[in-house]
Design brief:
The chain has helices at about 1-10, 170-180, 325-330, 390-395, 480, 525-530, and strands at about 25-35, 40-45, 55-60, 65-70, 80, 105-115, 120-125, 135-140, 155-165, 190, 205-210, 215-225, 230-235, 240-245, 245-255, 255-260, 265-270, 275-285, 295-305, 310-315, 350-365, 375-380, 380-385, 430, 435, 440-450, 455-460, 465-475, 490-495, 495-500, 500-510, 515-520, 530-535. The protein is mainly beta and about 550 residues long. Bound molecules: CU-O-CU linkage.
């Protein structure tokens, strides 16, 4: 049935004028490439030798086939971050969750259809720390003839923000895991692959965005960094925010946007200033006493006709701990909620869940730097243990012993989450999932804990968009907080920051059968175990089941 369907689709796609469907085919060759930045060079893992990697373009409704071939010594998998993957979990990409990784010399074709989504997303490696250099943009244009719900920009530009380590990132994380303590922070941020001149290497060039007076540009900004939330601003120019995470928002003007790893933000910028050069900055946001890379990456907006010796108009990035600047952006986000793009917020809740997110400390006799203990992370005190068989396979083929379905819906120990830490900082561990019926509705409150530090955690849910219906500081109080939820036009996203010392409430409809990873998108927290998965059962209707796996699905 499935292969028959695909054949039909292939045939139908030969006549794109007749049906709204098109095939987009890409080859992603995962290969090593020598790269020089910050006045030193190293070999990095890339797609097609590029950093950032190639942009994947498609239109809403298109079927995308990406043949990924692994030419490096590491196992590899690629995730299409924010693509809903309706019934096609096999193409989602997180290693050992929806697939076994692609081994050296092997390839796998990711095959998915983009349904009901348009905007900017990102793709990235979803294994080890390879996503530090294996990432790129996904641009989903509206269907042909369908306009943007805002004035059409004169030009569109992809802006990928990232982090750069002078040393090999696999060595960085391996060293950290051995020691039990936090890894070294990166040496610089980058804008489209370039840090711009920094004190450690002044000859380092920066990305230049040429503009013409009076024209409007849409920047598709992506935070592909591993561990850092970033502020983005342009000297002398306002940003009109029109979309986040491939969902339209009510447009608003602002000076500075904040983007967490995994999030995307589309802004319109009009070149309405005097001709000249204007500084663009990407700088870290961290409002906890945690070390970050404080090197600001810079680029320039360059008006045509500007004389070469014109000095650049500068801007000062927000201070690292500027919570108010971040909140000013975050609290301005509302779903567009128009007739064409309604906000379908679930009004009733079948599963009312509360998950704590935070760190912990477990014994580790061999961890010298950690004095015999190591930092771990958990959700509801469970430090997730990666399985050796992909969860989706175990689910589909009924392989027992790979996971259990007893992930707790509420914290197993109730304490003052944002107050002084409890006496016992240890976590439990397991490969536990939370099971949901098809089409059930979920309200999930993500509650930060102060074990070690209160900290902002950008949580990403695979397979779904959710609505961020509420947010607050301190401990979530179901009696008083729920009444204040916005069920009309809350922002719709796939990655949401749990505020430092606070909570965020999200709602989603479990209309996608399969196994869906949820984790902190700060890669170090994922590594430490801040992750879990939802298992959504098949429905009874004709289009409500997970499709069977493709024949080239990698084996473990
Ligand atoms: Cu962008 Cu599971 O990740």
């Amino acid at each position: 049935m499935d292969s028959c369907f695909r054949l039909l689709l292939l045939v139908a796609c030969l006549f794109p004028a007749l049906v709204h469907c098109k095939l987009r085919q890409y080859n992603f060759d995962v290969m090593l490439k020598k790269s020089t930045k910050l006045c030193s060079s190293k070999s990095i893992v890339t797609v097609n030798g590029r950093f950032p990697g190639p942009t994947l373009y498609a239109r809403e409704g298109d079927t995308v086939l990406v043949k990924v071939t692994n030419h490096v010594k590491y196992n590899v998998s690629i995730h299409w971050h924010g693509i809903r993957q309706l019934r096609t979990g096999w193409a989602d990409g997180p290693a050992y969750i929806t697939q076994c990784p692609i081994q050296t010399g092997q390839s796998y074709v990711y095959n998915f259809t983009i349904t009901g989504q348009r905007g900017t997303l990102l793709w990235h490696a979803h294994i080890l720390w390879l996503r530090s250099t294996v990432h790129g943009a996904i641009v989903i244009l509206p269907q042909r003839g369908v306009p943007y719900p805002f004035p059409k920009p004169n030009k569109e530009v992809v802006v990928v923000l990232s982090e750069w380590w002078k040393s090999d990132t696999e060595a960085v994380i391996n060293q950290a895991l051995k020691s039990g303590v936090a890894p070294n922070v990166s040496d610089s941020h980058t804008i489209n692959g370039h840090p711009g001149p920094v004190s450690s290497c002044s000859s380092q060039g920066g990305f230049t965005l040429p503009v013409e007076n009076g024209k409007t540009y849409m920047l598709r900004i992506i935070n592909a960094a591993l561990n850092e939330e970033l502020f983005f601003k342009i000297a002398g120019h306002k940003l009109t925010v029109v979309e986040v995470d491939a969902s339209y928002v009510k447009p608003f003007k602002i000076d500075t946007v904040v983007i967490a790893p995994g999030q995307t933000t589309n802004v319109l910028v009009t070149a309405d200033q005097n001709s000249g050069k204007y500084l663009v900055t990407a700088s870290p946001f961290m409002d906890s006493p945690i070390a970050v890379d404080n090197v600001t990456a810079t680029a320039t907006l360059h008006y045509s006709g500007t004389l070469a010796n014109t000095p650049t108009t500068l801007t000062k990035p927000p201070s690292q701990n500027a919570t108010a600047v971040a909140n000013n952006f975050i609290d301005s986000l509302r779903s567009l909620n128009s007739k064409t793009y309604p906000a379908r917020v679930p009004k009733n809740v079948d599963h009312n869940l509360l998950f704590t997110v935070g760190l912990g400390v477990n014994p580790c006799p061999s961890c010298k730097a950690g004095n015999g203990s190591r930092v771990v992370a958990s959700m509801n005190n469970v430090t997730f243990v990666m399985p050796a068989t992909a969860l989706l396979q175990a689910h589909f083929f009924n392989i027992s012993g790979v996971f259990t379905t007893d992930f707790p819906g509420n914290p197993p120990n109730v304490f003052n989450y944002t107050g002084n830490p409890p006496a016992n900082l240890q976590t439990s561990s397991g490969t536990k999932v939370y099971r949901l019926d098809y089409n059930s509705t979920v309200q999930l409150v993500l509650q930060d804990t102060g074990i070690i530090f209160l900290e902002n955690h950008p949580i990403h849910l695979h397979g779904f968009n959710f609505f961020a219906v509420g947010k607050g500081l301190g401990n979530y109080n179901p009696k008083t907080d729920q009444q204040k939820f916005n069920l009309v036009d809350p922002v719709e996203r796939n990655t949401i920051g749990v505020p430092s010392g606070g909570w965020v409430a999200i709602r989603f409809l479990a209309d996608n059968p399969g196994v869906w990873f949820m984790h902190c998108h700060l890669e170090i927290h994922t590594t430490w175990g801040l992750k879990m998965a939802f298992l959504v059962d098949n429905g009874n209707g004709p289009n409500q089941s997970l499709l069977p796996p493709p024949s080239d699905l990698p084996k473990c």
